[in-house]
Amino acid sequence: MKFTYDVLQAKADEHIARLRQEAEVERSLRQKVKEAVQVLASARRRKQRQPTSEAPSRRSA
Questions:
Q1: What whole-number distance in Å separates Cα of residue 46 and Cα of residue 23?
Q2: Are 15 and 23 spatial neighbours (Cβ–Cβ below 8 Å)?
Q3: Residue 52: inside a domain, yes or no?
Q4: Based on the structure, what is the number of domains in the chain?
Q5: Which domain holds residue 9?
Q6: Separation CA 54–CA 52 (nearest Å)
Q7: Alpha-carbon dihedral sign for residues 6, 12, 15, 17
Q8: How far, CA to CA in Å, does 44 sit from each of 1, 32, 50, 57?
Q9: Residue numbers in the chain where pLDDT is lower than 70
Q10: What is the DSSP string of 6-60?
Q11: pTM for the complete prediction?
């Protein structure tokens, strides 16, 4: 019976390690998305601050 418990414990430990790794990857991806959104928002603010004469028109783009 002890062998079965040890095998189950080892499988559970492997599964927990895999879930922790997946969670770390997800956190990393969320951080990258957050940074990308910040860069995009900053670019939009910069574009809005340009005088309209310097901003490219939508027709020519």
A1: 35
A2: no
A3: no
A4: 1
A5: 1-43
A6: 5
A7: negative
A8: 64, 18, 10, 15
A9: 1-2, 52-61
A10: HHHHHHHHHHHHHHHHHHHHHHHHHHHHHHHHHHHHHHHHHHHHS-TTTSPPTTT
A11: 0.60
